[in-house]
Design a protein that fits this description.
Catalyzes cross-linking of the peptidoglycan cell wall at the division septum. Helix 10 (about 245-265) runs antiparallel to helix 20. The chain folds into two domains: about 35-240, Alpha-Beta Complex (Penicillin-binding protein 2a (Domain 2)); about 245-570, 3-Layer(aba) Sandwich (Beta-lactamase). Strands 2, 3, 4, 5 and 10 form a five-stranded mixed β-sheet that branches. The chain is built from 20 helices and 21 strands. A hairpin with a 5-residue loop joins strand 2 (about 45-50) and strand 3 (about 55-65). The N and C termini lie far apart (about 115 Å). By secondary structure, the protein is of the alpha+beta class.
Amino acid sequence: MLTLLVVIGILMLRAAWLEIFQQEWLQQQADKRQMRVVTVPAYRGMITDRNGDPMAISSPVSSLWCNPQELLQAREALRNEYELSRQVSEATAGDTAAEESEAQALASTRFARLESGFRQIEKELGMEEGSLPAKLKEASSKQFFYLGRQLPLEVADAILDLDLPGVAATREYRRYYPLAETAGHVVGMTNVDGNGIEGIEKAQNDILAGKNGQTRVVRDAKGKLVESVISMEEMQPGQNVQLSIDRRIQYLAYKELKTQVSLLNAKAGSLIVLDAHTGEILAMANVPSFNPNNRKELEPYLYRNRAVTDKSEPGSTIKPLTIAAALEARVLGADVEINTSPGQINFGKYSVKDPKDYGSITLSTLLAKSSNVGASRVALLMAARDQWMFLNRVGFGRVPNAGFSGETAGQLTDYTKWGKVDRASHGYGYGLSASLLQTTHAYAPFAANGVFMPASIYKLDKPGLGQQVMSPDTASAVLRMMEAVVQKGGTGEKAMVDGYRIAGKTGTAYKYIDGKYQNDRYLTSFIGVAPASRPRLVVAVQIDEPQIDDSGGRAAAPVFSKVMAESLRLLDVPPDNLPSEHPPMPQPVAPANVGGAT
C-alpha cells in the first residue's frame, strides 16, 4: 500500500509539473502535430448570358493526394508482416498452430485490404491495373503527390473510405460549361488549377477568380479535420461576369454555321450577330470549335477565336464602305452613274476587270453587280487621305477592344504610301486586312444613322458613347443601295428573309499565299442589316475555303438568312416588308464572280 501511495504521489507531482511549468511548451508541441493552416479555395464567379442564364459555373470537386513514402512504407510493412506470419505458421506445430494460423489470417486480411485499395484507386482514376505502385516509386522522393485532380466527390469519398495511410483530399472547384462547344471560343476555359487560359475566362480572370482564404484547423492523427479554430483570412468569392451574348441566338448561330461548313466541306467558318444600336455582340460562333468540358480531346489549334484573331482581305464586302467614303468626301452624289466601260481599268501590268462591260451604272447597280471597275473608279475619285480617314473611323487598322484577348487590329497602311493601284484595290477590298469582327462592326453605322458604337462582348447597362462617322443621309442612302444586292437577281438573293427588308453585301476574297493569289482558295462572306427600314441587327457570315459553292451569295448568304430570320423572331422585331413605303429599286442583274470579289 505504501509503495502504491508513493507511485501515485510521484504521478501527481509529475502531472502538476507538466501542467504548471511545461504547459506552454507542451501546447506548442501539440499544435505542431495537430494544428494546420489550410487554404479555403475561392468560389469562381459565374459567366452568364445577357438574360442571366449560366454559361460557365463552378461545381465542387476533390483532388486526391498522398505522401508516396508513407503509403509505400505501409504497403511494405504489411507485406513483411504477412510473409513473416506465413513463415512462422509453416514452422509451427502442436498447440500453437491454431493461434499462428489466426495471426496469419489477420495479416493476410490487412495486406489484402491494402492491395484492394490500390486496385480500387487504379480503377476509379482510370489507371492500368498494377501501375499505382510504380507511379508511387517514381514520386518517392516527394512528400506530396497528386493521385487525381478534380475528381467527383463520390469518387474521392469512396477512396478516402478505404482509410489508406498517407492519402487525403483537398476540396476544389471545377468549371462546367452548359453550352459546351456552342460557345467554346467566347467563354473559353480554365486550366486544372482554376485559372482562365482562353476566352472570357482569361480576359476576366482577376474578377472571376476571387481570393482564397486561410483558416487554422485541428486535425487528428490520421489527418482528418476535427474542428476549425479561427479564420485567418476571409475567402473572397469571385464576381459574376455577364456577357452580351444571347444563348438562344448563340446556339442557333453555331448550329447553322456548323451545318453549312459541313455541307460545303469547308475548312472553317465564323459568324457574328451584332446589335447595331448598342454595339453588343449577341452571338459569335466559330467552326471548328471545341468542348471545354472534355479536356481529353482538346487540340490547341481549335482554341483560336477566328472571328477575332484572324485577319483577311474583306473583298467585295468593303464596297458599301467605299461608296460611303466617297459620299462623305462629297466627290459624288447618291444619284450619280459610274462609267465602267470598257469593263476594265489598266494600271501598267496590273488591271482590274469585270466579267463584262456594264457601261454606265448607278451606285445601287454597282453593288448589285459587284463591279470591281466601278468600285475602283469611285475610290480613285477620292484623295488617299479621305479614303484612309473614313476606313480608320469605322475601325480598320484599330483593335476593336470588344473585351476579348488577342484581338487583331488588321492592316491599313499609311495613306502616304498608297499609289494609284493601292487606292483602286482598297476600293474593292484588297491590299488591306481586317478580322470578321472589324468588318461587321464597320457595317453598324449603316444601321445606326451613321453612329459608330463601341463593340462589346459584355452586357451594357446603358449604351456607350458613339461616334458620328458618317451623316445620317449617307447611312440611309448606302443602306438603300445595299437592298438591291438582296433583290431577285442580285448576288445576295439567297439572303432574303420573308417579311423583312434586307440590306447587305456578298464577298469573295482570294487568298494571298506564297506571293500570289490562289484561284482555288478563297474566303466567301455575306454581311447584312435588318430590318432595312428600322435597322436593329448586323449579321456577318464567313466561310473559309468552301469546296462546293464559290461565292458569298451561295455559300454564306443562306446561313445569314436563317440566322437573321430566327434572331429577329426571338427579339420580337416586327416585320417591315411594306413595298408601298419603300419600293425596291429594280436591279435586273445576274450573279457574277468578278475578279476575285463577288
